[in-house]
Specification:
Elements: E1 32-39, E2 45-55, E3 60-68, E4 76-87, E5 92-99, E6 104-112, E7 115-122, E8 125-135, E9 138-147, E10 150-164, E11 174-179, H1 182-193, E12 196-198, E13 207-213, E14 216-222, E15 235-239, H2 243-252, E16 268-269, E17 275-280, E18 286-290
Parallel strand pairs: 11-14, 15-18
Antiparallel strand pairs: 1-2, 1-10, 2-3, 3-4, 4-5, 5-6, 6-7, 7-8, 8-9, 9-10, 12-13, 13-14, 16-17, 17-18
Length: about 290
């Protein structure tokens, strides 16, 4: 039995008609982290964590899992990303599961009393994963060949326990910079980084606000005199998936960049593999751009 193939999921096919939400079964699963550990039939380890969230006004459920990300089962991290969607043509909830190894598993889901059963093809066989309901925070979990209400073979038997998702006590909101050239500096952040300008809530003069990513913002505040040494150690840091393309954009705009020691048009390669550069805005504030993954 494949040890790395399928993210264990919660979903079910509902025979509900009309305008009801076919994915409402996930209501009790949202906001929890489902954890399980055990051993496959050959003795190898099984360890998994799963969370669920609604997207697109509740028409899709996204499942994210952590598990072993190497065949030696020594590295644990983000492993699968899945989609759950009701198909009106088949009148079933279907799933697509993409894993870190480049694989795709897909199948359909049904229910058996309060148990959640889903089937998918593995090679020439049809494999079943069953979540056997114990209570709202506990499911027994089995993987194997399940035919006509009986297990012909069981590859894995363990239990998923739910834990509330712990939110971080703080989230990044905004960074403010005092500037003397409000228009020029604001245009720099808009044109170089593509930040969207948003209105000041009181629409006061002397401010330019920008949306950076998600709910994070950059606030520029105009002052006639700014007495402050712009040291590179004090900087805003932004990450991009394509640092090379961003460097080409800087060169096209004739904006110089530096590595950490200060070498012109050079890139720093950190010990952890992250590449980084530094530029200055029109006020002299330093900005780091790197390719760290988040």
């Amino acid at each position: 039995m494949k040890k790395y193939g399928l993210l264990c999921i919660f979903c079910m096919a509902l025979s509900i008609h009309g305008q009801e939400n076919y994915l409402s079964f996930f209501d009790g699963l949202i906001g929890k982290t489902w954890k399980a550990e055990g051993n496959w039939g050959d003795g190898s380890k099984f360890s998994q964590e799963i969370t669920f969230e609604y997207v697109l006004d509740g028409t899709l459920v996204i499942a994210k899992s952590k598990g072993f990300t190497d065949k030696e089962q020594t590295k644990f991290g983000n492993r699968n990303h899945g989609i759950r969607k009701y198909n009106p043509e088949t009148k079933a909830i279907e799933f697509w599961e993409f894993d870190v190894f480049g694989g795709l598993t897909k199948g359909t889901v049904t229910t058996e009393n309060r148990n959640i059963v889903y089937s998918y093809r593995y090679g020439e066989s049809i494999v079943t994963d069953m979540w056997e309901y114990i209570d709202e925070n506990t499911y027994n979990f089995k993987v194997g060949n399940y035919v006509d209400g009986y297990w012909k073979q069981v590859y894995l038997s363990t239990q998923f326990i739910a834990e509330p998702i712990q939110k971080e006590p703080f989230e990044f909101d905004h960074q403010s910079l005092v500037v003397t050239q409000l228009m020029k500096t604001g245009d720099f952040y808009r044109d170089v980084f593509g930040f969207e300008e948003i209105p000041h809530p009181e629409r006061k003069p002397g401010f330019r606000w920008f949306k950076m990513y998600g709910n994070s913002q950059l606030h520029l505040i105009k002052k006639d005199v700014v007495e402050f040494k712009k040291d590179k150690s004090i900087h805003l840091c932004l990450a991009t998936e394509d640092l090379e393309s961003f460097i080409e954009k800087l060169m096209g705009k004739q904006i110089t960049f530096y590595d950490w020691p200060g070498n012109l048009n050079s890139v720093t390669h950190r010990a952890d593999g992250v590449k980084q550069i530094y530029i200055q805005d029109p006020e002299g504030y330093w900005i780091e751009i790197n390719d760290a993954q988040h």
